[in-house]
Automatic annotation (TrEMBL):
Belongs to the ribosome-inactivating protein family. This is rRNA N-glycosylase. InterPro entries: Ribosome-inact_prot_sf (IPR036041), Ribosome_inactivat_1/2 (IPR017989), Ribosome_inactivat_prot (IPR001574), Ribosome_inactivat_prot_sub1 (IPR016138), Ribosome_inactivat_prot_sub2 (IPR016139). The lineage of its organism: Eukaryota, Viridiplantae, Streptophyta, Embryophyta, Tracheophyta. GO terms for molecular function: rRNA N-glycosylase activity; toxin activity. It holds the Pfam family RIP. Keywords: Hydrolase, Plant defense, Protein synthesis inhibitor, Toxin. It catalyses: Endohydrolysis of the N-glycosidic bond at one specific adenosine on the 28S rRNA. GO terms for biological process: defense response; negative regulation of translation.
Amino acid sequence: MPTKKVSGVDRFGLVTLKYSSEAAVSLVIDVNNIYIVGFYSNNPSANPQKAYYYFTGDPAYATDASKLFDADTSVLPLNYGGDYGSIGSRSEVDLGRIPLIEAIKTLYNRRDPNGLKNSFTVVIQMISEFVRSDLVMNRVLDNFAASKPADRDMIFVENNWESNSKAVRSVTSSSQYFATPITLPSGTVIKNVDEAIKVGLVSLLWSPTSTTNNIFMHWPAFPSLSTTN
């Protein structure tokens, strides 16, 4: 893993989600922190056909990330950011196979940019948060067929990725205790790295100086999204 953050177009990568040969979207990922910064779809039925929509918050989302696409791609701003406060409540949005398929469809069709927020809530949790924490990954997979919203533990872990990573980095041995124990909303108390690993608190550590661009080599696989619907 490089020891410094990357910049320019190299700062961004693509994760393509496809459930059929007709419908696919490419999520634009900031490899420094795994944030989703926008998405691209090539839909012959849409106007424009090729479009990259990006969140507000960083000029590089428009200038650098857009270089991933052909010159004839329309680069269009969304009027909101990619944080959960901007896109909606996680406790009210199901995660699972069907919600992910519907999110892909909605982003692919992109009829109303303001109607995409629930879809972003799904893909951010099922892609970015999925990689950051084994707790999130395991609970998403456990309910992949049934579909359920994020529970309180998942939301806590998602909200505290940076601080939990700092706690893990602050100790030199996995058996050493954190300065302050981490308590999940369910009541589980995590006192050291061994317990953090057992719970799945953090599987990919946040870092202020290094990039996570090797995640694309190790991205966990979902069960098939193939559908006959």
